[in-house]
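Convert to structure. Protein one:
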Amino acid sequence: MIIQSVRSSGHLRIDQLAELTGASPVTIRRDLTELEAQGSLRRTRGGAARSGKYHENVPYHVRAAEEEEAKASLAVAAASLITDYDSVIIDNGTTCHAVARELAGRPLTALCLSLHAAATLGAVPGVRVIVPGGPIEPDTLAFLGSQVIDAIRDMRADVLLLGACSVSASHGLMAATYEDAQLKKASIQSSSRRILIAAASKLTQTSNFRFGTAGDITHLITTSDAPAETLAIFNDEGVDVTVV
């Protein structure tokens, strides 16, 4: 609850967090210390603020619950760009999982880079679901390793549905881990249309590993509070920008 509240609001005082959670200020201070050590937020004088860097160790269910309404709107917009019988690479992550829910039941071929998306699509007849094999990451259920990259390179997809841990005007598209960055880079190279789906909050964060630039994307779907200067960078690269 603390992580979700701080990341949604940007900054909260200890007394506000105590009221939200029902915990004592002493407990809140202890929790903030622990969460800052994990990289989930940043301690401030008398409170906590959203971390400037998006870390991979935030639990999947916490990330899935963040900005649910925005993700649903982004998912609808992304699904509308997919034509029946397209072949699609669906990236891992909570936003792409939301898009998978919108695509369930449609006549598509989908290479899913996480079991979350694969299970969602496979539960309803319609989509031909392909998984790359190999080990999966606990919690996120994202596929890992060289088998995934081989599967991506063996496919020529009509569309890539791409998530990003962060998008920086100066550093480009970034992921929290080196392995994920390599998968995203291979996916970009193996697809004709590349749709980046990212809420505005992702456009003001940084991560450790760069996997592309604005020019590597053909479409950007984001929310209406996205920074105008960041959208201008994509526009200048000829990217089709959709704001929901």
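Protein two, convert as well:
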Amino acid sequence: MSATKSSKKQVDMLNGSLLKNIILFALPLAASSILQQLFNSVDVAVVGHFANSQAQAAVGCNGPVINMVINLFIGISIGANVIISIYVGQKKTENIKKAVHTAMLVAIISGIFLTILGLFISRPLLTLMNTPAEVLDYAVIYLQIYFLGMPFIMVYNFGSAILRCIGDTKRPLYCLLVSGIVNSALNLFLVIVFHLDVAGVAIATVVSNIISACMVWHFLTKEAEPFNLSWKKLSISKNELWKMLKIGIPAGIQSMVFSISNVVIQSALNSFGADVVAGSSVTLNYESITYFVITAFSQTAVTFTSQNYGAGEYDRCKKVFRISMIASMITTGCMSLSITAGHSFFISIFTPDAEVIKYAEIRMFIVLMINLIASTYEVGGAALRGIGYSTTPAVITVLGTCALRLIWVYTVCQQFKSYETLLIIYPISWVITGVAMLTTYFIIRKKTFSKAKSLA
């Protein structure tokens, strides 16, 4: 395989210290995801300080909707990551070329589809979610404008997945750093100067997504073969697409159903009024930030496991799982506890409203403080996908978190209608799903590796 022009930016997943390389790979990835989340966080903060609580609630309540709609296609990008990484381990350069161009064309097509879909379903979906009447029009405006940027969101995510396959998580971070600065500046400019409130922050987010997508596309066009991206070579390879879909669709459905359960919970939150919605959305920003640390280590586990599995390095795959799990739990735990300890300061960044602050604090102490437990099923599921098992972790997550949360909302919460009762299902579902996922991982890993060794 040809060396790329950016070899210094790459992490070697097949050689060297796993602890060092996993940290070098995961930290820029976590920072990238956090910056991506900050697009929405800055939106919430700006409208909270310079508009009103209704506008703030409108921006905050759109997160679960956006995730639900786009997660199926983000899942396919995970499939692309796994397949290309396995090809890297196997040194199959022609397959890599086909997979890269297939993935990027899928990104463009899916982005256009999501834009069209989003424009039509925004109001019906938000109405179905019981979005408060005083918030609904604001929320529709934000969501429809946001969906205009979907092609660029897809290009960035698929392009970043490809760069991760060659051990590069730094340049996606640079993309988001630049676009994040633009996003923040435009937010303030459009809201304070032009008084565009919700529309202003949505426009700023779309512009930022355009910038990050263009940058990651440019980086790929400068890569050496077999990762070099060319407009002329964009095409769908049925074989590579099928392999991506086989891994990616279960992962995407898992994320989509997971988001549906969050939409149902958001609907239940909406019934408590705008102050609860706003307070919950404030803490949700910090939950997302810490959760992206977990997903960074889970994506690291997917990529490292895939390459080492493709190369036949089974003992190294075990070490990847162990290091990724421990690092995820320690890092997430430290962040969550630090934010919770300084809750007064962190909440004040988003709102000065006493009622909103009260509900934000409640969510911090019930959900945020112990969300490191989610590492168990995220990293465990990622390790399973890395060795080719995608449906199994999807089923476990759907049943253990999504289905359980839906049952809770429609049974327990109907009998004990309170904000606290609604939130407690998060830690309960994390524990149940984590135990099931880890048990399954160790069983499947033992059988898979034993079979592979016997055939070697």
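The chain has one domain: 13-455. Residues 13-455 form one domain.
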